[in-house]
Amino acid sequence: MLSQARELLRQILVGYRGQYELYGQLFRLTQARQEADPDGLGELIKETQDIMEKLDVLSAHVDDGKKALGDLLGLGEITLRDLKETFGDVKELEDLLEKLASLLGDIQRLEEENQARCQRRLAQVKKDLLQLRRGQAATSAYTGEYVEEARFIDRKS
């Protein structure tokens, strides 16, 4: 039973390593979106979606491994404490989970910055569009049907 449990733990570690690698790619794409021009943004978003799909598959495999290990050990859901009690040293897993948590925090921070930048760009575009419409309205006053014929209405008389 312990050898089977060790194999499941190894599979979980491999899954988390894969997640860390994919999240690293996601972090680099998130950084690239900060500097991307609108034409290149679509490709970066597609790459991000591809990575997210891979992460979904990998997460499902990790979850399956954790469930199988929990069932094998007679636990509903496994914790790091349970793994320490069963296997002793799980430092590699602890370190990997800490690195993953830190990387996810960095990605979230960049995503928030990107979102704020997009909101500012959208507000600027709306402002520019409003100014354009006002300019068009002012211009149309001088290019109307009676431009050549001046009319003056004196309300004093």
Rg from alpha-carbon coordinates? 30 Å
Here the CATH topology equals: Methane Monooxygenase Hydroxylase, Chain G, domain 1
Shape field: rod-shaped
Biggest sheet record = none
Number of helices: 4
What is the total number of structural domains? 1
Portion in helices: over 70%
- The succession of helices and strands, N to C, reads HHHH
Please identify, by name, the CATH architecture.
Answer: Up-down Bundle
**Total strand count, please?**
0
Structural class: mainly alpha
Low-confidence stretches: none
Describe what this molecule looks like in 3D.
With 157 residues, this protein is mainly α. The chain has one domain (2-135): Methane Monooxygenase Hydroxylase, Chain G, domain 1. The protein is built from four helices and no strands. Helix 1 runs antiparallel to helix 2. The chain is rod-shaped. The model has no long low-confidence stretch (mean pLDDT 86).
List keywords for this structure.
0% strand, single chain, mainly alpha
Write the layout of secondary structure elements.
Elements: H1 2-35, H2 38-73, H3 80-87, H4 91-142
Helix pairs in contact: 1-2, 1-4
How would you summarize what this structure contains?
The protein has 157 residues and is mainly α. Helix content is 83%, strand content 0%.
